[in-house]
Amino acid sequence: MPLQVLLVEDSPGDARLTEVAFRAADETIVLHVTADGVEAMAFLRHEGVHLGSPRPDLILLDLNLPKMDGREVLTHIKEDDSLKLIPTVILTTSIAESDILRSYELQANCYLSKPVQLDAFDELVRSINDFWLTKVKLPQQMQS
Known about the structure:
Elements: E1 4-8, H1 12-25, E2 30-34, H2 37-44, E3 58-61, H3 70-79, E4 88-92, H4 97-105, E5 110-113, H5 118-135
Parallel strand pairs: 1-2, 1-3, 3-4, 4-5
Helix pairs in contact: 1-5, 2-3
């Protein structure tokens, strides 16, 4: 079964760059994109238009999102018994120590800052793929 990745990203440009970088790293990964925190939670809870959405193997979460910010999304994920085991990686432009600390307090699995240079961004996505989707043993998907 192909690995499912949920990218929660409000920037269409960053979402597209991530999609292209993942495709280059591993064509079998299925990347789903939601543009705000409310839509991300609907995807994860199989609500509305996301009724048939798959359970992701990995969540890449931006912090600065419309409607519901990434910190609130992370809180909801980690408080939900059916979602809390999904590795959640913060992928954001912020390098603020307060954002890093708060993300780990909310049980983020790791915190990565988006590089501004395209080559560095591609390398970061390759390292995410290599570590989280190749080397790490992920929990078997739970049946809803």
